[in-house]
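I would like you to help me understand the sequence and structure tokens below and explain how sequence relates to structure.
___
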Amino acid sequence: MRHPSATLRFFLLGGCLGLALWSSAALAHLMPEQKGTINVQGDSVYVVLSVPVSALTGFDDNKDQVLSTEELQRHQAQLREQIDRRLLITHKGQTGQTMVVNLVHSPLHEQTVQADQLIVLKHVRFAALPSEPEIHTDLFGTSAKERELTLRATRGGPPPTAPSANSAPATPLNPTQARPGEEAEVVVLSAQRPSHAFFQPWPSVLGRYVLTGAEHVLLGWDHLLFLLTVVIAASGWRYWLSVITAFTLAHSITLGLALLKLLNVNTAWVEPAIAASIVLMALDNLFRAQAPMWQRVGLVFACGLLHGLGFAASISALGLDGRFKWASLIGFNLGIELGQLLFLAGLLALLAFARRLLPGWSAPRQRLWLSALAACAGAAWVIQRLI
């Protein structure tokens, strides 16, 4: 396929950029906070995102922690340089050439001239087609809600067109479906994960979601505490293999159904219910220690269905890879299992060491005290998540 001539590309790219600048007033209202879009067109990458003012420095003359119109005009050049330096688009180690950085005031409401968000439009060009563009940024704010940034990257598909005076109102710049012929990918950046390479091949996607799944389990105290209540209920490889298999099968079912949009659940009650499952398992340990194993396996399976919805809610914030949904789904699930196995191996080793170091710390005593602590922690989480 022949590439457009340099002149034609200039007008096409200039038109796209002109459209973005022309519609900047609408962007100030349509771009949600902590959201952004990245569009790859030929050798150029266009970035539009909402940046929290608290992430910026050197502009707040009156120390009111918001950006006024006068402050934006006074420090325009400095803010452009700062954002250009802290928002980098690279490809295979090469930084793209910045063509334009434009800043648009994003008002808190219609009548004010102050804002706690700033809309950034950046155009970057590369010497070669950026097949796997990578973003690097530290533009995260100080409040809890400003510590993450959701980005949707697209490439291919028809170029954007300017709306006419009689067209329908524009929709928010947070689409969930790719247009025909367009590739799309969604990622959540954070202060702990400030970089991401888009449009990677499927093995890289698989590996990335494996790490994400393992990280979610190992950093999820509620899931770990639930696993602890399951493991300490009895001993023996036959029991441990049965309950872990039941939990894995159950959460895999609901995770897959939810992510494939075959199961729609109101997630508002999922987190309190997960905390309640910890209380349930802990009380079962305390008052039904001699229950048949098949009953315990069935209870773990039922709770596992619930935990799968929690896993689905977590990955939904990231989104499945636009091109390799199955690779990202399988990778996330494998990561969950890897995280579980690492935790269980460490937990069993620690419990065995405690029994050897403290002869009076027998398995029944461990079950009693740890289950009581788990019940208290789970109850506290239920109350916290319902308030």
User: Anything to note?
Assistant: The chain is about 50% helix and 20% strand. Residues 279 and 376 are 8 Å apart (CA to CA). Residues 6-30, 159-177 have pLDDT under 50 and may be disordered. The two ends are 59 Å apart (CA to CA).
